[in-house]
Amino acid sequence: MKSGISHKIDKKTEEYSRITPSATRDFNFVNKRGVTKFEDGDLSGALEDFKEVIKLNSHFAKGYFNMGLVYQELGRLDEALDSYETASVLNPLFADAYCNMGVIKASQDQPENAILYLDKSLALNPIHSLSLYNRSILKHKLNKPDEALEDANKSICLDRSRPEYYNNRGIIKKDMADYQGAIMDFTQAIELNSSAYEYYLNRGKTWYKLKELQKALDDLSYCLTLNDGCSEAYYYRGVIRFQLTDYDASVKDMLRSYTTDPETKYFSEKIRKT
Length: 274
Description:
single chain; Serine Threonine Protein Phosphatase 5, Tetratricopeptide repeat
């Protein structure tokens, strides 16, 4: 499974509850309140606050940026793009806004346009690790593995705390047949976040490439304890169990793979062949 695209919001610098009631019309206060609501999952409340911020100060770029992020979370992508565009006009050096516009274009299956926005973000801020990470994913999608790996390496050098960065680099290395390197990256991703089933799935598939069947089986089984609806894990575990001559268990996994995701032609064709 490919790594997902990321975006971010400005963090609050102080608790808005510390501000006196007389400050409630201050746009900075309302913006911080909106950020807090966003972090608490109150998207509608956050959106109302950010709209109020814009009314109070129509030149406040971060207000438009934060409003764009809420729209993005709500799936209202055209409105999110408009908000980010306005933020970038008000602040031409707003690297985060260009990054998030790239995120949206990527989600709309426009990888070339997405890369243009990410290039702009990185021109403004060459150490913007999220832009490097996102551009790496897109370059990999466009079959440019060497460029994808270069961006992945840079993103990790800038921020070694993000498990998705290691997972992304592991996927690239696996597709480049650097299986040992991929194992190391997936292992590091797991050490940073042991509850992400995708990391165990990816490492299990890589162990399978290395013909380490028991290690692959262990990872795929653990993946399914985290997500029992992962069709791909059932399929690969079924293949491994077949090779280990555990035929009854293999058939059960193959059937479970198909029933979990019957619309996936890849798996249904593989199951028929098996």
